[in-house]
Amino acid sequence: MAKSYRIAILPGDGIGPEVTREGVETLRLVAGIRGFSLELTTYPFGADHYMKTKETFPPSALEEMRGQDAILLGAIGDPRLPVGLLERAIISGIRFGLDLYVNLRPIKLFAADLCPLKGKGPEHIDMMVVRENTEDVYAGIGGFLKKGTPDEVAVQEMIFTRKGVERVIRYAFDLARRRAKARKLTLVDKANAVGAMDLWTRAFAEVGSEYPDIAREHAYIDAACMWMVKDPESFDTIVVSNMFGDILTDLGAALQGGMGVAASGNIHPGRVSMFEPIHGSAPKHAGKNVASPIGSILAAQLLLDHLGEQEGGGLIEESVAELFATRQLRSVGTDSGVGTREQGELIRGALRKRVATPT
Ligand code: IPM
Ligand code: MG
Q1: What Cα–Cα distance (Å) separates residue 306 from each residue in 62, 249, 301?
Q2: Which of 2, 218, 278, 337 is at a distance of 20 to 30 A from 258, taking alpha carbons?
Q3: Which superfamily does 1-111+259-359 belong to?
Q4: Where is the Isopropylmalate dehydrogenase-like domain (predicted)?
Q5: For the chain, what are the domain ranges?
Q6: Index of the ligand 1 atom closest to the CA of residue 264
Q7: How much distance in Å is there from the Cα of 277 to the middle of ligand 2?
Q8: CA of 300 to the centre of ligand 2 (A)
């Protein structure tokens, strides 16, 4: 019997729905080609739903998602609502609720002219960032004292657990091994200023001793930002704590050509996981058919990889790469001149051709 996957689709806010439409269409095409079927369930959560119902993200939705194979999310966030309300409820709700402890963010340059750095091409920028995804300041341990008064105190704790740090480091070592490229893993932290990060230093050394074939490197987050710009080829696989990883991967997305091209997977190996573009909801571009859907389409690729459908995922990546290599697409900015829908169609056209004439 043909395989069937149950996928939750959460288009969300702003440009989320239009880019997700392209991600979903591409998934459907690959399913047809590779001979598996998809059962899609679309969820309405986001700003409009909240304004109508006052519901952010009900526990029942999380429970339903737990029973599916994967989740494809568009973008969450809307300037009409308090900062972070929906992001915390929905994005963090899914990351924490499903214990998706790896935030996997490939940084891969598809064509030299996409990169803002001079003299850098695809041979220089190809790395994987493994961002810890369930701890750090995102864990929500904190609060206020005397809120709104001149004596106000605000506290937000950076939480690291031995288990949480160790499991993400282990994932990163395994990934560096699977990639079989430079066979090295760089730990990025701020252990010189944040004493608690000594936990990362020790766990990295201890877990690393089980991977004698993988070289261990280290960079402080500030220096890592500098090296990403000066010498991006020095990185292969990176493991980094949650907030530093958030920042480092926006820099990484810029090296790839912009937020429009960067995708991420929120992963718990072997369990239902969530895939999304790195970009946000970009409300000012919403509904105009100008946002690039490539982040969502590459998120669909990561989703397929997670489901064990690497061949289907590979078809997506090769088609995106071809589009840039042949200069049918020269930028992923909103001024690229190629619409959201049209970019999706170009990629699917290239994909169909690859299948008709395998290289
Ligand atoms: C990301 C985003 C989120 C994060 C926001 C929207 C909460 O920036 O996925 O990188 O900080 O993790
Ligand atoms: Mg971010």
Answers
A1: 19, 20, 9
A2: 218
A3: Isopropylmalate Dehydrogenase (3.40.718.10)
A4: 6-347
A5: 1-111+259-359, 116-131+159-256
A6: 9
A7: 10
A8: 19
Ligand 1 geometric centre to CA of 91 (Å):
8
Ligand 1 contact, 87 CB (< 6 A): yes
CA of 132 to the centre of ligand 1 (A): 12
246, 247, 278, 302: residue to mutate for ligand 1 pocket, most atoms within 8 A of CB: 246
The two structure tokens encoding residue 298: 């590459």
Closest ligand to Cα 247: 2
What are the pLDDT digits (tens) for 75-113?
999 999 999 999 999 999 999 999 999 999 999 999 999
Q: 143's torsion region: left (phi>0), alpha (psi -120 to 50) or beta?
A: left
| Residue 358: pLDDT over 70 | no
**Is 276 close to ligand 1, i.e. is its CB under 6 Å away?**
no
- pLDDT for res 357: 79
Domain 116-131+159-256 fold: Rossmann fold (3.40.50)
282 lines ligand 1 (CB under 6 A): no
With 0.70 as the threshold, say if the pTM is over it.
yes
Look up residue 187 and give its two tokens: 């730990």
CA distances from 99 to 42, 128, 164, 197, 305 (A): 22, 21, 10, 21, 19
